[in-house]
């Protein structure tokens, strides 16, 4: 089994870094700071060094980002979807019925999201208090309609597809499950869900994930300070150690798409934990010797979105 240690990158720490994506059209790394409501962008040098280019405010909270084919970025923000223009101007596109609200009111927020191979935007939600069953997975389709794909989730998290698009992987960090679904790319419909991996609190729980070009899964384990690589059958193949317990997500970036970038979080950490983990919230990198895909782009409209009942 392969074992690696990730090293800290230059950009300053986030409060809760998440959702790294390689934006191939702009040749830059995207990631979000959820409670700060920020999209952050960085260049990746030939030696794997990261240089932050910009940060844009996209909402009260921003859970995830996807490049848009027509330009700019699509955000899973607040309790719905927002657009962020190239000049950094953000506008709300749709607030989802039954989602949103403030943390103190027991509301929900958008969490992880990603585009499928056809360009739909799949986005999950969670309650601020992480109460069981309050999360859901939505699909913003190519015609601008939004439908519910799954409900009864707790912390809808990492999303990824097999290289041929026929399998959708989804993490629910509440019960610590990583599931696989048959996926119809033509219709954007998951079916026949089955648990691929189950994690206990002592080993961390599956958070953000990516799928490499060989079809293997890389999942950040929140609470364990690791990113692990698994075969499509669930066999452990590699472990990347990170000196921060709250590893939140990962992606492959750079011109060769061979640089593994890991986001981390300082959310909820005690003063003692912060002192023991001074790099919490930073980005980390490693080169595991494999490549992964760039972020799929959103190919639907930005205006006239509507939620199906």
TrEMBL record:
Matching InterPro entries: 6-blade_b-propeller_TolB-like (IPR011042), SGL (IPR013658), SMP-30 (IPR005511)
Enzyme active site: 207 (proton donor/acceptor)
GO molecular function: calcium ion binding; gluconolactonase activity
Domain SMP-30/Gluconolactonase/LRE-like region: residue ranges: 17-265
Record flagged with keyword Metal-binding: yes
KW Metal-binding (keyword) present: yes
Key words of the record: Metal-binding, Zinc
Biased composition regions of type Low complexity, renumbered to the chain: 1-15
GO biological process assignments: L-ascorbic acid biosynthetic process
Binding annotation for substrate: 109, 111, 129
Cofactor details (free text): Binds 1 divalent metal cation per subunit.
Cofactor(s) demanded: Zn(2+)
Residue span of region Disordered: 1-20
Residue sites binding a divalent metal cation per the record: 18, 157, 207
Record-stated family: Belongs to the SMP-30/CGR1 family.
Protein name (database record): Sugar lactone lactonase YvrE
Native source species: Trujillonella endophytica
């Amino acid at each position: 089994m392969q074992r690696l240690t990730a090293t800290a990158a230059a950009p300053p720490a986030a409060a809760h870094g998440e959702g790294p994506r390689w934006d191939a059209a702009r040749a830059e790394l995207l990631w979000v700071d959820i409670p700060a409501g920020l999209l952050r962008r960085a260049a990746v040098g030939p030696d794997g060094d990261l240089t932050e280019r910009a940060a844009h405010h996209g909402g009260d909270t921003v859970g995830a980002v996807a490049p848009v084919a027509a330009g700019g970025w699509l955000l899973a923000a607040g309790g719905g979807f927002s657009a962020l223009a190239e000049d950094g101007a953000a506008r709300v596109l749709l607030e989802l019925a039954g989602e949103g609200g403030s943390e103190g009111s027991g509301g929900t927020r958008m969490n992880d999201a990603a585009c499928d191979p056809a360009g739909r935007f799949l986005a999950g939600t969670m309650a601020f208090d992480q109460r069981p069953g309050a999360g859901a997975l939505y699909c913003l389709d190519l015609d601008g309609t939004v439908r519910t794909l799954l409900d009864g989730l707790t912390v809808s998290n990492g999303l990824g597809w097999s290289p041929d698009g026929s399998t959708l992987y989804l993490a629910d960090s509440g019960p610590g499950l990583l599931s696989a679904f048959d996926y119809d790319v033509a219709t954007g419909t998951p079916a026949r869900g089955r648990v691929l991996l189950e994690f206990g609190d002592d080993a961390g729980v599956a958070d953000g994930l990516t799928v490499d070009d060989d079809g293997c899964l890389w999942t950040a384990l929140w609470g364990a300070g690791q990113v692990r690589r698994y075969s499509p059958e669930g066999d452990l193949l590699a472990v990347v150690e990170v000196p921060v317990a709250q590893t939140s997500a990962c992606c492959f970036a750079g011109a060769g798409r061979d640089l593994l970038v890991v986001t981390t979080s300082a959310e909820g950490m005690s003063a003692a934990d912060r002192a023991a983990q001074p790099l919490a919230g930073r980005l980390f990198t490693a080169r595991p010797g494999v490549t992964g895909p760039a972020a799929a782009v959103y190919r639907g409209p930005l205006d006239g979105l509507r939620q199906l009942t």
